[in-house]
Every structure is written in structure tokens, then in C-alpha cells.
Design a protein that fits this description.
Chain lengths: 204, 204
DNA sequence: CTAAGATGTATACATCGTTCACATCAGGGA
DNA sequence: TCCCTGATGTGAACGATGTATACATCTTAG
């Protein structure tokens, strides 16, 4: 850490991440170039390579950060959901996150999760585990793995359909009503899921 | 149409589409460059611009073709589903399509559907309408708009989670069981959906 | 204090999307 | 029949990008 020197940046790694994140929000995925990141960080074009192996590694880092933000965003919607209504509130938050950070959300799912980024793998695993946990808390009597997969898929799909403009996303209220309704529909059937295809979910 | 001349290609438009499609399957989205398409079509780097305004237009054309293929793929799974089991078979086909053509499927949803490509808009609208129709045929007594949105979201989400390696996709049978189970769970609750958030779906 | 490692710079190369001026061909009107 | 106009393909060129390599500068452990 130096303040005096202008040669060394101080914390280029974090600066790159912040710049990348900003470019993503401003210009979408296309605007996220390593050179643009370097420019925004006030550094030469190749400097970021000291901290990220290549562009994909940077994107993975941004995606991992996105997963962590999503997790705290969901937790803020409700810290420990244990009723269908509370779980639905978390689902609504999930979709809202996607709509508020479309480029980031797409970066998180645009490509198969790079297995060489253990940071990214860990972040997605945390989300997956979180979903499983709150589903289990809400429906202790059913197969938590199967149900959590199903509810995650439903909410994830809703997020993407909204992102693609296939559904009416004109107001947050309409989106919330849509998501709540869909999730509740699934929950009405939850007891029927006991013992269905246990093991269909991988450990991830 | 000329055979004799080697200067004019004959049907460059179609050749570009085919080449783009092949590159997508072979090298993923990153391999789909306009120049590579031109090379594969045996034509100069700028020739494709006579038929596609820019790279995005080509990608949109590929995506539109993908939507049409998906539609016929679903229809092949069952021409006119009218029972939950038949509808589930279509859902399984949807996910299988995604797994068999991952790069194409991602290209179809990687970015917000470009509204300037009426071909693409029409193709996605056709899919949307198709889903609505078969859901209405299967559950005449419920709000078809709301239910079709929900089932589409569920299946779409399952496709993406499988694509991202979040679920066990090791064998087609496991995937089919997973999807069938999730869809049936939703259907058990279908009667409960009557009258929920009608109008939450846009005309698309 | 100094040598070594960490961090940033400069230069260079291949590739890409895209533009523009030009070449070639096909088909219809004189 | 001829030619000329529009459609189609070519070539060179520009700026941007990802990345490799060699070099410069700073920090810090010994």
C-alpha cells in the first residue's frame, strides 16, 4: 500500500472489479472490455493481467460478486423465511434483483459456470444451499432437494422471461403479484412432492 | 441463381446462416464471428454485410431459426397435448432441446430480444402462443395466460439450471424424471390458479 | 542496504466488426 | 442484340479488442 507513488495503483484488483461492474451496468456486457476496465482504473491496458488471468476470469469475479450480492439481497427480503408467504417474498426479491441488474444477472448465467473459478463455484453453491435451506424450513415434511430445485427453476425462469420482455414488467407491483401467484401455485402442490425423484439434484 | 460463376455465391444468405449455426455448435458463442462465417462460406470478409446489417442481425436470424426448430421439436414430442402427461412430455422435450443445443439455446436468450428483428419477434411470439394454446387445451377451466406463464417459466428455468450444471444432467432419463416431476407438481395445483393475476402476461 | 518478487508500462501481433470504394455479374428495356 | 442499372462480392483500411513479451518501477524481507 503506497499513497505517494503514482506508479503503483494501490488496489488494482478491487479497482478492476469496480470498474468492470460499472461498465456492465452502463453499457451492458458488450461494454465490459479489459481495456475499458484498465482505462477506467487509470492504468495501462495490460496491468489487469497481473490480477486476472484473462477476460473470462474478470467476468467470473464479477459474477461471483453478483452471486454474493444476490444472496444478501434475498436475505434482506427476509432473513429466515419459514412460511410460504415469506418464501414468496424472497422469490419476488430474486426477480427484482434480476430486473434491477439485468447485465449483471445475465453475466452470472450467460455461460456455463467456469469450474476453474473456485470463487464463482463457491458463490453459486452458496446460493443453491441457501435456497435449499429456506425451502426445507418452510416445508419440513417434503423432499427439500426436489422442491427447492423446482421452486428455484420457477423463479429463475420468471426472472429470465421478465428480462426478455416476455412478461409485463411495467411496475414492481405487477411483477411481484405475478411471482407471488406462481410461487403460491407451486406451494399448493408441495405436499404432493414427498418422495419424488429424490437425488435428482446434484450436490452443487 | 448461377452455377457457372464463382464470383457470385448463389445463396449467400442461407450459407451464412448455416455456417453461423455450425460455428455456434462447434465453438460456442465466441466462435461465431462474422469473419469466420464468411470464411466458412468461402467468401470475402465483408460479403455477409450484403445480407445482414451487422453481427447482431446474423445472431438474431440464427436465434429465430432456433425458435422455429424448438417449435417443431416440441411438436414432435406431442402434436397436440391435452393431458398433463402429454404436456409434461413437451416440457421434457423443451429441456432436452436446450441440452442438445446449448450454444444455440443461449444465443436465443443471451440478450433481450432485439425488437428490430421482426423475424425474431415473430418466432418467439409463436413459441409463446404455442405454449399458451397447449396449456389451455390441457386445463380448459383455468386462467390459461397465468398458468402458461408459470409452466413456461418453470420449464425455462429448469433448462437453464441444467445448462449451468446446477442439476444432474448425466442421463436423459434423469433429466426427464426431474422435469416430469416438477411439471406434475405444478399441475396438481393448477385448479387453484383460476382467476389469479389475470392480465399479468403481456400480449407477446 | 540490497536483492528479489510484485506490480505496472510499452510495444507488438492477430483478430474482429465495420466502412468505403471498386469489381463483377444478371436481367430487363432500347 | 446491346448495354446499363441494380444486386452482389472484393479489397484495403481503420479503430478496438485480447493477449504475449520484454522492460520499468516499487516494496519489502533478509
Amino acid at each position: 500500500m503506497s499513497r505517494s507513488s503514482s506508479y503503483h495503483h494501490g488496489d488494482l484488483r478491487a479497482a478492476c472489479l469496480r470498474a468492470a461492474r460499472e461498465l456492465l451496468e452502463e453499457d451492458g456486457s458488450a461494454g465490459l472490455s479489459l481495456r475499458a476496465v484498465a482505462r477506467r482504473a487509470g492504468v495501462s491496458a495490460t496491468a489487469p493481467y497481473r490480477h486476472y488471468a484473462d477476460r473470462e476470469a474478470l467476468v467470473s469475479a464479477v459474477a461471483a460478486e453478483g452471486y454474493r450480492e444476490l444472496a444478501t439481497y434475498l436475505a434482506r427480503a427476509h432473513p429466515a423465511p419459514s412460511t410460504p408467504d415469506e418464501l414468496a417474498a424472497v422469490a419476488v426479491a430474486y426477480v427484482r434483483f434480476a430486473l434491477e441488474h439485468p447485465a449483471l444477472f445475465r453475466a452470472m448465467f450467460a455461460e456455463p459456470c467456469d469450474p476453474t473459478s473456485e470463487e464463482r463455484v463457491a458463490a453459486t453453491a452458496a446460493i443453491s444451499e441457501y435456497v435449499r435451506t429456506i425451502v426445507a424450513a418452510t416445508f419440513p415434511e417434503v423432499d427439500a432437494d426436489a422442491l427447492s430445485t423446482t421452486v428455484w427453476a420457477l423463479v429463475h425462469g420468471l426472472a429470465f422471461l421478465h428480462l426478455d420482455g416476455k412478461l409485463d414488467s411495467s411496475t414492481p407491483e405487477i411483477v411481484a403479484a405475478q411471482v407471488t401467484s406462481a410461487v403460491h401455485a407451486l406451494f399448493h402442490a408441495a405436499p404432493a412432492m414427498s418422495g419424488t425423484v429424490a437425488g435428482a439434484q446434484r450436490g452443487v
